[in-house]
Amino acid sequence: MAIGSKNLDAESLRDKSDADLVEELGKAKETLFNLRFQAATGQLESHGRLKAVRRDIARIYTIMRERELGITPAPQAEKAAKEDAA
């Protein structure tokens, strides 16, 4: 089983637009900051959550890089390509 948030698996991230990915990245970075702060003050209950959020951030960056390189198209680009072919 993959480590990370349930709603941030690779398939669901690939279905999101670029703007949504940037928004998710911001949320994940904010969550990571808060978790690090809790760890530093001794209030963190689940240290595994730090690892999960770091992996979520890496997963988002991977999807963004794939789109930048043209490996996987953005969802709106797929729709436009299908409409052009029809």
From TrEMBL:
<keyword id="KW-0689">Ribosomal protein</keyword>
<dbReference type="GO" id="GO:0006412">
    <property type="term" value="P:translation"/>
</dbReference>
<dbReference type="InterPro" id="IPR018254">
    <property type="entry name" value="Ribosomal_uL29_CS"/>
</dbReference>
<dbReference type="GO" id="GO:0003735">
    <property type="term" value="F:structural constituent of ribosome"/>
</dbReference>
<keyword id="KW-0687">Ribonucleoprotein</keyword>
<dbReference type="GO" id="GO:0022625">
    <property type="term" value="C:cytosolic large ribosomal subunit"/>
</dbReference>
<protein>
    <recommendedName>
        <fullName>Large ribosomal subunit protein uL29</fullName>
    </recommendedName>
</protein>
<comment type="similarity">
    <text>Belongs to the universal ribosomal protein uL29 family.</text>
</comment>
<dbReference type="Pfam" id="PF00831">
    <property type="entry name" value="Ribosomal_L29"/>
</dbReference>
<dbReference type="InterPro" id="IPR050063">
    <property type="entry name" value="Ribosomal_protein_uL29"/>
</dbReference>
<dbReference type="InterPro" id="IPR001854">
    <property type="entry name" value="Ribosomal_uL29"/>
</dbReference>
<dbReference type="InterPro" id="IPR036049">
    <property type="entry name" value="Ribosomal_uL29_sf"/>
</dbReference>
